[in-house]
């Protein structure tokens, strides 16, 4: 059973999300909160698999709530997913750096939301290819934030290639097809890269790839 925490200051949105998710036999909404501070407390109390957090909330926003959840070693298995609108890209960037596992747009189709919760609970990729490319395009326009690529020295050439493809939003199956390897091997390369770079999940690999200059605005052909 996938256990979910809902944190949004709009009761109507929380109610809609609860009804949608609770209708699934493998998903249970264990708690909900109207602000980030309460959300952090409930995360510590219930240890959900997935925490869906709105960005803009009273008392404590979703970014700070994400930061506190990620910083707590006892909550290492909680995957934070940010709920956002199209016009809040800057919040998305900050949320990813704070340790969010990914984000969902609030106009996401119900079926896609349910799938995303399951994907997040597994710790797999959550950013869709289209949205990831949009993020990367914004990321690479900010050279002042770039970091030296020295940290990538711990990766093999194969792992560097995999990280780059993850950053462009490719799934394990897509990576396998592009590199002519099995999906299991692709998954192994991704896992090893995350371990070596200290990334919580694939979303964090996107940040690393951007900040070290490994990716460019256009995906490789």
Q: Which range does the strand content fall in?
A: 5-15%
* Molecular shape: globular
Share of helical residues: 40-55%
Tally the beta strands: 5
- The number of helical elements comes to 10
Low-pLDDT sequence parts: 143-148
Summarize the structure.
This protein has a 5-stranded parallel sheet with strand order 2-1-3-4-5, sandwiched between helices. 50% of the residues lie in helices and 13% in strands. The protein has 221 residues and is α/β, with parallel strands linked by helices.
Layout of helices and strands:
Elements: E1 2-7, H1 11-22, E2 27-33, H2 36-46, E3 50-54, H3 62-71, E4 79-84, H4 89-98, E5 102-105, H5 110-122, H6 129-139, H7 157-167, H8 172-179, H9 183-197, H10 202-211
Parallel strand pairs: 1-2, 1-3, 3-4, 4-5
Keywords:
globular, alpha/beta, five-stranded parallel β-sheet, 221 residues, 5 strands
Written account of the structure:
- This protein is an alpha/beta fold and 221 residues long.
- It has 10 helices and 5 strands; from the N terminus they run βαβαβαβαβαααααα.
- It has a 5-stranded parallel beta sheet, with helices on both faces.
- α4 links the parallel β4 (79-84) and β5 (102-105).
- α3 (62-71) runs parallel beside α4.
- The radius of gyration is 17 Å and the shape is globular.
- The model is unreliable at 143-148 (pLDDT under 50).
């Amino acid at each position: 059973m996938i256990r979910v925490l809902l944190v949004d200051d709009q009761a109507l949105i929380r109610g809609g999300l609860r009804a949608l998710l609770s209708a699934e036999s493998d998903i249970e909404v264990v708690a909900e909160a109207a602000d980030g501070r309460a959300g952090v407390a409930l995360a510590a109390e219930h240890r959900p698999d997935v925490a869906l957090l709105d960005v803009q909330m009273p008392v404590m926003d979703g970014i700070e709530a994400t930061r506190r959840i990620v910083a707590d070693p006892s909550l290492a298995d909680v995957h934070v997913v940010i709920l956002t609108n199209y016009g809040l890209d800057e919040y998305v960037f900050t949320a990813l750096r704070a340790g969010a596992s990914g984000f969902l747009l609030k106009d996401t189709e119900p079926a896609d939301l349910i799938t995303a919760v399951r994907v997040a609970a597994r710790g797999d990729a959550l950013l869709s290819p289209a949205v990831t490319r949009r993020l990367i395009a914004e990321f690479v326009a900010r050279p002042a934030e770039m970091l030296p690529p020295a940290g990538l020295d711990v990766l093999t050439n194969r792992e560097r290639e995999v990280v780059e493809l993850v950053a462009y939003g490719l799934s394990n199956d897509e990576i396998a097809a592009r590199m002519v390897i099995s999906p299991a091997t692709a998954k192994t390369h991704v896992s090893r890269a995350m371990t070596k770079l200290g990334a919580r999940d694939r979303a964090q690999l996107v940040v690393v790839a951007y900040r070290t200059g490994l990716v460019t605005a256009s995906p490789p052909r």
